[in-house]
Design brief:
- The protein is α+β, with helices and mostly antiparallel strands.
- 34% of the residues lie in helices and 27% in strands.
- It has a two-stranded parallel sheet with strand order 1-2. Strands 3-4 form a two-stranded antiparallel sheet. It has a two-stranded antiparallel sheet with strand order 5-6.
- The chain starts with a strand and ends in a 7-residue tail after the last strand.
Length: 102
Amino acid sequence: VILDEPTNHLDFGNQLKILRIIREMARAGLAVILTTHMPDHAFLLRGKIGILRQNGSMHTGRTEEILTENSLRELYHTDLRLIHIEELDRDVCVVGREAGLG
């Protein structure tokens, strides 16, 4: 199953519904490939990912190995932080102060 930004233009609740369906499809044994601009979606799905770099190369691996603060800052050209939330046992991506929004 190939999905191109399946959560684009959806409100938060419906984004989560789509992510649950994607996770269920993967658990059922389907190969699921999707594109997203939302790092938190990749953290929620916890799969194998690839980042397409500006030079056209693809960096692939497990989510927690590929999505680091440095790789995301380089990708999005902005100040951001990854914060581990122990209760959720996952990282979340937040905007840093230097981004001018805090």
